[in-house]
Write a structure and sequence with these properties.
Elements (H helix, E strand, L loop, with lengths): L8 H7 L1 E4 L7 H10 L3 E4 L7 H14 L5 E4 L1 E3 L2 E2 L11 H4 L5 H17 L4 E2 L24 H17 L6 E4 L20 H8 L1 H6 L5 E4 L5 H4 L10 H11 L5 E3 L14 H11 L4 E2 L5 H16 L1 H21 L12 H18 L1
Parallel strand pairs: 1-2, 1-10, 2-3, 3-6, 7-8, 8-9
Antiparallel strand pairs: 4-5
Length: about 375
Amino acid sequence: MPYTAQPDLSGACGQLIWVGLEGTYPTETEWRMLEHIRPGGVTLFRRNIESAAQVRALNGALTQRLKPAPFLAVDQEGGRVSRLNGVLTDLPPAADWAKDGSIERVMRLAHWKGMGLRALGFNVNFAPCVDLSEPQESNGIGDRAFGRDRLRVTRLGYAYLRGLAAAGVAGCLKHFPGLGSAQIDSHDALPRIDRDRPTLWREDLFPFRCLVRSSPMVMMAHAHYPSIMGETPWPASLSRIMLARLLRHRLGFRGLVLTDDLEMGGVPIRQDPEGVARRALLAGADVLLYCRPTELAERAFRSLLEEALSQRSLQAIVRQAAARVAAAKKALGVWPLRRTRLPDLEHANSKLRSLREQIDSQV
């Protein structure tokens, strides 16, 4: 089986890097980059989407040409974070889903969304947000969250994960340990979150504490938490205290740990892309996300490979992370799409339209 053999070191480094593309099909330059790195995943954005047939063809080509076949991911939350508008029925934001607190409806929404994603060739959806946030807040989350009631957020987050899983799509809890109390958007700069440890544990961390064993992936926040990390400004996504000690050791998470996009303003990547990649990996991340096919991903790949070749300790970390990526692929059944019977997209869209009408009638 392709995911049980120990990968070569170059291949192991590549599996830790997920990249984006610039257009609706890779250029020859992008294909060379992709086949050199052999990334563990590819994320599609609105700029990559033209039609259902085009998305299926793109995802099919990626699974055929890249060995091993990559995770194919998208941010399809609903509301303003919907990359597949015009292809998959658009849904309201999570804040609207949560208004009546219906666990069954959220599960059905996530299930039919997952079926639509599978029909297009995706196997990962970067959702749900289990940050505690109300729609009007200026934290970069707003209506992407189910609200500030930690119990409701947890129940609906669990329903969302179950619905996606039933469709064969991996969900991803985000953004650990919670961005709800940020005052600025981490896309622009590094937020400082001044909640004390007991409050973080009781409130922001509550959904993650309850759900980490139900989710195959967790995405880290680009935010600074002084009460846990100390006063030196540094993103949680690059912090061993947050990843290895809190998420892995204390909460017992055994799935994949993803950084948020490393090209966001909350990370000092432009000054030192090699150092950021190394710090993320040493902190305990398994996956380094890059949203565009820039030189940053290639520089990270080259530096990780060079250092792993000369440092046995780093080589061991690379291989352990790559083994977790391989295990996650095997568990999800990530194979070239020609081996996979895809669901019917129009049937999924019909179900989603009906569910959307129900939500719209109550908002």
